[in-house]
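This follows on from our talk about sequence and fold. I would like you to pick a protein and set down its sequence and fold. Go ahead and set the record down below:
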Amino acid sequence: MQTYSDELTTFRKAQETGLLSDGGWLSVVGLYWLSEGDNALPPALRALGKLVRQGETVRLYTPSGERRLLKPNSTERLTQGSVTAQLLQRGKRLGVRVYDSESPARKSFKGQQWYAPDEGYKITATFHPYPQGKTMDITNVLGDIQPVPCPGYVTFPLNGRLCRLEAQGTPTGLFFNFRDLTSGKTTYPAGRFLDTEKPTNGKVVLDFNKAINPPCAVTEFATCPLPPVANYLKIEIPAGEKKYH
């Protein structure tokens, strides 16, 4: 029978595997925003041609004269050797994120740092749905503001305080983007992420031992969402992932 410690070990190993994968955040080596008209590809991909932006449309023009429409935020990649690139859209911005499976960050990775497991931070919270629905403005590190659906909030007692966190919906459950009084000390300054399963009978389990850093903790080329002010907790939660080395 799997113990709780075994469960956490499996979860944390999966996080590390994701970071180290070819398309993981440790492989990201650049982010280039596109201007209107012609845009050169990053040097490692320049042999593939150039990108031409016309409003919200981006096409790859190859040296042979082929024109290929690219879709932002898709799984489509441009590839040359160990380097790949993906078209992404953030607000009105269109850009190219570049990955290299031979990146220095991937090669020098020394592992994530975690607090010791503590089941005291695995909490059953009460879920309070918004019957009429609600949206919440989320700001990313670029300053872009995006309204996102907010199905409800959770409340839970912890360390003598009644805490509240606004939730975002996911296909499989809920997502919480939060800060606490460890942020900037022992944990990543901007905050951390926590995913949960869907509420059952008005309850949802928050396992802060599975709180993880946003991608911005390991690369400057991510566009992470910041926690809403409502999710700034006035307590320390010494559980989950610590600051990246």
Notes: The mean pLDDT is 95. Helices lie at 4-20, 104-107. The longest strand covers residues 83-90. The two ends are 34 Å apart (CA to CA).
